[in-house]
Design goal:
Blueprint: E1 9-14, H1 22-36, E2 41-46, H2 48-51, H3 58-74, E3 83-86, H4 92-101, H5 106-110, H6 113-119, H7 128-142, E4 148-150, H8 156-172, E5 182-184, H9 219-228, H10 247-260, H11 264-271, H12 276-301, H13 305-334
Parallel strand pairs: 1-2, 2-3, 4-5
This protein binds tryptophanyl-5'AMP.
Length: 338
């Protein structure tokens, strides 16, 4: 990790909307665990306020928040080592977001590709929250003076906006108060693609359930989805260059590399020349071996949601202890009478 003048602190978040899928796991959650185990202060959040920028049924939202927390813990996040909580229990996020709404420019927000994709042609009918989404995301990060943010590739533009907001705030108020955050987008699976279409990312919102592997899928479902995954008729190449024009093949090899914690080159050294009929069962076996213990533990944790709620509440108290003084100083800088 690169050096900044601020003490290193990691923040990241995942939305509790829909099921946690393999893209979330490999692009984000698995890497959250690695960073926790590097001995840096780590803060991880279930961003329920972001989730409601599009409609969420209240019962489903509550359930998805607890299930996501179970997923965090089952994947290896330790509530003692990392601070784990849901965003709405730390009101400082929304309070700082308001200030950032007054720093960020309309033009910056209008350029966000995720806004354009999600609002689509019907932007007039999208919520104001969806438009302001990246400003709340900047607040999530900067309310902790976080310096490093592990995310998948699709969040890169939002993190650039976070840097722009921090720099404009520092410039306008003539302070060096907010850090200019580093995105940490690393590994073989920063962009896991749909199993049905190698040009689309794996996503919660894809109508086809066969396009993604959910963390709660059982072994048979995982095997079936991988068996049906779109591929081409060629054998696998022996070098990464041979995957350049083959998005579906590249995706499956990337997933294999990320799950086995090796590089694409190492995987291809072993499987180069094999047909998909041979490679797919290998990938299924590996996916089941790595994911089944996580889904089993998630199901066990979900049997006692009061324990999950207690963990989130304790986490939010620890988070507020960091966030509240930073909000106070921000108000001071901005000129609010306290
Ligand atoms: P969300 O909930 O869509 O996704 C959570 C994390 O999973 C990553 N991800 C992927 N990585 C690889 N391949 C994929 N197909 C894939 N799909 C999702 C995302 O990049 C992300 O890291 N805006 C964020 C949540 C957020 C946040 C934050 C993140 C809110 N505040 C502050 C970091 C810091 C989001 O919607 O992620």
């Amino acid at each position: 990790m690169s050096e900044t003048a601020f003490q290193p602190r990691v923040f990241s978040g995942i939305q509790p909307s829909g099921d946690l899928h393999l893209g979330n796991y490999l692009g984000a959650l698995k890497r959250f665990v690695t960073m926790q185990d590097q001995g840096i202060e780590t803060i991880y959040c279930m961003v329920d306020l972001h989730a409601i920028t599009v409609w969420q049924d209240p019962t489903d939202l509550r359930n998805a928040t607890r299930e996501l927390a179970a997923g965090f813990i089952a994947a290896g996040l330790d509530p003692e080592k990392s601070i784990l909580f849901n965003q709405s229990q730390v009101p400082e996020h929304a309070q700082l977001a308001w200030i950032f709404n007054c720093v960020a420019r309309m033009g910056w927000m209008q350029r966000m590709t995720q806004w354009k994709d999600k609002a689509g042609k019907n932007a007039q009918n999208a919520s104001l929250g969806l438009f302001a989404y990246p400003s709340l995301m900047a607040a999530d990060i900067l309310i902790y003076h976080a310096t490093h943010v592990p995310v998948g590739d699709d969040q890169k533009q939002h993190l650039e906006l976070t840097r722009d907001i921090a720099m404009k705030f520092n410039h306008d108020y003539k302070v060096d108060f907010f850090p200019v955050t580093e995105p940490v987008i690393e590994g073989a699976a920063t962009r896991v693609m749909s199993l049905r279409d190698g040009s689309k990312k794996m996503s919660k919102s894809d109508p086809s359930a066969a396009s993604r592997i959910n963390m709660t899928d059982d072994a048979d479902t995982i095997a079936k989805k991988i068996r049906k995954a779109k591929t081409d008729p060629e054998a696998l190449p022996s070098e990464a260059k041979g995957l350049e024009e083959r998005p579906e093949a590249r995706n499956l090899v990337n997933i294999y590399a990320a799950l086995s914690e090796t590089s694409v080159d190492d995987v291809l050294r072993d499987v180069g020349g094999k047909q998909f009929s041979e490679f797919k069962p290998m990938l299924s076996e590996l996916a089941v071996e790595k994911l089944a213990p996580i889904s089993g533990e998630m199901a066990r944790l979900m049997q006692d949601t009061s324990e999950i709620d207690a963990i989130l509440h304790r986490g939010s108290e620890r988070a507020r202890a960091i966030a509240a003084p930073i909000l106070e100083q921000t108000y001071e800088i901005v000129g609010m009478v306290r």
